[in-house]
Amino acid sequence: MPAFYIFITDRFIIYILVFFAILWVSFTDLKAQDLEAIGKEKPIKVSGTIGTTQTLYGVSGIPNRRPPFMTFINGGVTLNIYQWVVPFSVTWSNQNRMAYNQPFSQYGLTPHWKWVTAHIGYRNMTFSQYSLAGHTFLGGGVDLTPGIFRFSAMYGRLSKAVKEDTLNVAGEIPSYKRMGMGFKIGVGKGSDFIDLIWFSSKDDVRSIEVPVKSDIRPAENMVFSINMQKELAKRIVVAAEYARSAYTRDLRAPIETGEQTNMFSPFFPVRNSTQFYGAFKSSLTYSANLYSLGLIYERIDPQYKTLGSYFFNNDLENITVAPSVRLFKQKMNVSANVGMQRNNLNKQEISTVKRLLGSGAISFVPNQKWNFAAQYSNFKTYNKISQNFNQFQTLDTLNFYQVSESASFNTGYNSTGKEKKHGVNLNFSFQKATQTQGEQITNNTSRFYNTNLAYRYSLVPLQLSISAGVNANQNNMADINSYAVGPNASFSKLFLDKKLKTSLTTTYNFLLTEKVNTGRAINFVAGLAYKFQKKSNLTLNMIILNKYSKVSPDYTEFTGNLGYSYTF
Asked: Keyword Transmembrane, does the record have it (predicted)?
């Protein structure tokens, strides 16, 4: 392993955070002294929010699906030290304190001063679409923009080592420890720039034992890219990026002998499992006051991959046109991106698929009462998901959905009066997706349909709001249709000069599989939120779920949350 892949631990990051804490205290002491020589400006300003939530859980009828007691702590603090701005965020939870996991925590700093920005802790950075593209890492990074110059660099852990769970108790996907580093150097500002990018990532072969059940292999990747954008006149913008990627699928493969003539050979060891790929994208956009027109060309080699992105579409060539227009005194906005796509670029597949590629969106707000919106897309995108829908789970253990088609429609009517307000809203959404696990795309294509109709009525003098509606969901997974259909109602009222908010919500769903009644689910939620001393908030809510099923055990589940937050 190269020498620059130093060992980064949580303790290293904590040392950095302690340094900033000492800096904070030092400046706080200065604040109490005579600062007339410095000026009337306060030397330090502190703002942010910190909060904690205690969760109590219990269930009867089935085994516990989570620990009986959990604690969550999260906060965000921003320090303004003269011209330095230091944002700090932290999230901690004990919910993963089990036999196979450590308590979950995330923390990070993003201080910036004039043209200097630092990234410390759990952060993410983007160099370009085909190199480092928003991947979260634990480590450090910097962005420098002095004058017309641009420089960015990062180093850190892209994924932690997760040993194989042969008993499938923890449910985690095994992975090697993966470190990454890179830099971007360029010239320009705003819409005029040119950047040279280098990104490298490598798995630690010794970080876990060789998996027995999982077919994961230690990988290595290096990307060179050039990314540019130029504004011609005032309305025309051209942009382009070209990237080359060297990707080794298995670091255990032997190194090839003989002279190497590729651009990576001085920096990247070529093995029997190493391959080289390219990606290119260019666009030309003309923008006027009420309309715009864009031409986009993109080509990504088969199996192109960068470890700086969670997932990547490859083996495609797209040519699209992207018009947009604003009509009726800008009350209506219409946009589209339409073209052709083909695959099998290297002619290695049995057949070539050519298809019409497109997305479109329209929104119309004729007046203050009515609004309409619709969208459709068959572009492939990736959405992060968690098996337990847990907002505190780390990105190291997340799976994804590859969304290949989506559509939605929304319309609403709102009547605003001094004493009475009411509104009606109708939503419909559709999504076609394929689940991915680790780096593997499964063959389980799912279709999700959701329709919701809601009515809301408010009495302003009484500070009372009532709503009722009906919701219908259909999920098609593995050619099995399941449905959940039923009414819902909610009530909310303010007390104590709007300091105390009370709310009640209930839903009743009929559950069906292939149109056969399989049970029902009743959900009841009660909540209190009290704001006091202008900066403190206390929340209490209770959730009771009762599920009756003809095909699985009946159960009743209780979740209680007590939370406190302080804003300063």
From this structure: yes
